[in-house]
Amino acid sequence: MYCITEQQITFILNDIKEKGVEMEDLQLNLLDHVCCIIENELEANGDFEQFYFATIKTFYKKSLGEIEVETISLVNNKNYYVMKKVMMMSGIISAALFSLGIAFKFLHWPGASVCIVLGVGILSLVFLPLVLTLKVKEKQSTRDKFLLSMGMLSAVCMILSILFRSMHWPGSLYLGYLTIILLILVYLPVHLTFGIKNPDTKVNTVVTSVLLVIGCCLWLTLVVSPKGLQMQGVRNTQSIIRNNELLQQEQHQISELIKSHKSTSPLLEQGEKINALCNDIVESLAQHNTGLKTYNLVLEQKDVSINDTYFNDFLNEIPEAENKLNALRKLSIQYNTEQLKYGEKLSPIPLTQNILESSNGRHSVKVMQAFTDLFQIQMFILQNERRLLSAKPITALLQ
Amino acid sequence: MIYSSELIKGTLKTIILKLLKENKRMYGYEITQTVKELTGGKIQLTEGALYPSLHSLEAEGILVTETEYIGKRVRKYYKLSPEGKNMTKEKLSEFADFINTMKFLLDIKINNA
C-alpha cells in the first residue's frame, strides 16, 4: 500500500485544476478518488508520477474537463425537463384561453377580456421566455444567442402592444415603437452584418431582412403618424367649436321665443337642467383632454388639439364625472316621461347606443363620440322646445 | 464480459440508490469498488459517469452529503435523503417492471440451471 504525502496531494489537486475542472466539489471528489486508487493499487515503493498520470488518463476520453461538462449538463437537465414541461403546459393553456377569449368576444359573452388577457399574458410572460431560455442553450455562438433573445423580446413587445391596444390600455403605441426600434436598429444590423458574410446564409439573410423591413413598414402604415394625429386633433377641436356655435345660436333663438311667449312648463325646466349638465360635462371633458384650465381657452382655439382617446379614461380619472353622467341619465329618463304628456309630436332623448348607456355599453366609446352624444342630447331638447312653441295645441299646454 | 457503457448509463442512478440503501453512506471510490466486487468485475463504473450522476442526484435533493477530512484531503460521503428513500423504491420497482417487459419483448429465456 502506497502512502501519499501532502505535497503529492497538492500536486494532484493542481493537476486536476490545470486539466480544466473548475467546480471545487468535483475537484475534491476526483482528488479523493485518485488518492484511493493510488493508495490501494500502487506498491509502497512504486513510481508515483507514472502511476498517477496513467490512472488519471483512464478518467476521460479527451480531457478531464469533460467530467465537469457532463456534471453541469446533468445538473441542468433536471431544470431542463421541468422547464420543458412548464413551457408546453403554458403554451397549451395560453392558446386555449386565447381562443376561448376570442370565441367569447365574437359571441358577446362575459369573460372574454379576462380570457384574452390571461391567454396573452401567459403566452408573452411565461411561454415565450421559457422557449427563449431553452432554445438559447442549443445555440453555440453568442451572436446567435443575442439574435434569438432580441427576436423573442421584440415578439413579446409586439404581442403586448396588440393586447394593450385591444384592451384600450395606455402605452400600446410605445410598445409598438419599441418593437420597431429593437427589430430595425438592434436585430437587423447584427443579423445582416454576420449573415451576409457567410455564403451559405447570404440569400436567407437578405430575404429575411427584406421581409422584416416590409413587416415593420406595414405595421407603421396602420399607425397614424404624429403629424396626422395633430391634424386630426385640430379637426376634432374645430368640430367641437362648430357644434358649440350651433348650439349657442339655437339656444339663444329659442330662449328669446320662450321669453316672448312668457312660457313656463316642467318640461322646459327639465330641459334647462339637462342643458346645463351637458355643458358641464363637455367643459370638464375638454379640459381633461387638453389639459387647459378653462373651456373658453378651447373655444379660443389657442394651440388646442382634442385627442380621440377613450371616454372611460376620463370617467376613471375624474370621479365626479361619473356622478354627473348618472345624473344626466336620470334627468333624461324623467324628461322622456314628461314629454309623453305633450303627445307624439315630441321626441324622447335616446338612452341607448350613446354615453347614457350602462358602463359596459360605453367601454369602447371615444371622446369625440361622447362630444357628439352630448351635442345630440342638447339638440333633441332644442328641437322639442321649438316644436312646443310652434304647435298651437301644444302651446296651450304651456303656461 | 464487461457490459457496455450504453447499457450501464440508463441504470447508473438505480445502482447508486440501491447501494446507498444497503450501506448507510458511501464515497465515490467505495461505490465503484463495491459494484465491481458484487458483479465480479462485469460492471465497472467510470469516474466520468459516476461523479456527474452523484452531483445531479445531490442537486435534485435525492442525496445528501457529509464531508470528512482524510489528512489533507476531503472525502465526500453520500447518503439517501428522505425523498431519496422513496425514490429508491420507485426506481427499483420501475426497473423490475422494465426487465420483465424486456424479457417479453426480446423473448429472452433465462437459464436458471
Highlighted features:
heterodimer, A: 399 residues, mainly alpha, 15 helices, 76% helix, B: 113 residues, alpha+beta, Arc Repressor Mutant, subunit A, three-stranded antiparallel beta sheet, 58% helix, 16% strand, globular
Number of helices, counting only DSSP H or I runs of 4 residues or more of chain A: 15
Query: How many strand elements of chain B?
Result: 3
Query: Hey, roughly how much beta strand do the residues of chain A contain?
Result: under 5%
The SSE string of chain B, one letter per element, is: HHEHHEEH
Number of domains of chain A: 3
CATH topology of chain B: Arc Repressor Mutant, subunit A
What are the SSEs and their pairings?
The complex is a heterodimer of chains A (399) and B (113).
Chain A: H1 6-18, H2 24-41, H3 48-57, H4 65-107, H5 112-138, H6 142-166, H7 172-197, H8 202-222, H9 226-261, H10 266-290, H11 295-299, H12 311-317, H13 319-339, H14 367-390, H15 392-395
Helix pairs in contact in A: 1-2, 4-5, 5-6, 6-7, 7-8, 9-14, 10-13, 10-14, 12-13
Chain B: H1 5-9, H2 12-22, E1 26-27, H3 28-38, H4 47-59, E2 63-70, E3 73-80, H5 82-106
Antiparallel strand pairs in B: 1-3, 2-3
What can be said about this structure in brief?
The complex is a heterodimer of chains A (399) and B (113). Chain A is mainly α and 399 residues long.
General description of the model:
- The complex is a heterodimer of chains A (399) and B (113).
- By secondary structure, chain A is mainly alpha-helical.
- Chain A has 3 domains: 6-57; 79-222, no CATH class; 226-395.
- Chain A contains 15 helices and no strands.
- Chain A has helices spanning 6-18, 24-41, 48-57, 65-107, 112-138, 142-166, 172-197, 202-222, 226-261, 266-290, 295-299, 311-317, 319-339, 367-390, 392-395.
- In chain A, α6 (142-166) runs antiparallel to α7.
- Chain A is elongated and about 135 Å long.
- The mean pLDDT of chain A is 87.
- With 113 residues, chain B is an alpha+beta fold.
- Chain B has a single domain (5-106), classed as Winged helix-like DNA-binding domain superfamily/Winged helix DNA-binding domain (Arc Repressor Mutant, subunit A), CATH 1.10.10.
- Chain B is built from 5 helices and 3 strands; from the N terminus they run ααβααββα.
- Chain B has helices at 5-9, 12-22, 28-38, 47-59, 82-106, and strands at 26-27, 63-70, 73-80.
- Chain B has a 3-stranded antiparallel sheet with strand order 1-3-2.
- In chain B, a hairpin with a 2-residue loop joins β2 and β3.
- The model of chain B has no long low-confidence stretch (mean pLDDT 88).
- Classes of the chains: A mainly alpha (399), B alpha+beta (113).
- Chain A binds chain B through residues 6, 9-10, 23, 25-26, 28-33, 35-37, 58-61, 66-67, 70-71, 73-75, 77-78, and chain B through 27-29, 32, 46-49, 51-56, 59-60, 70-76.
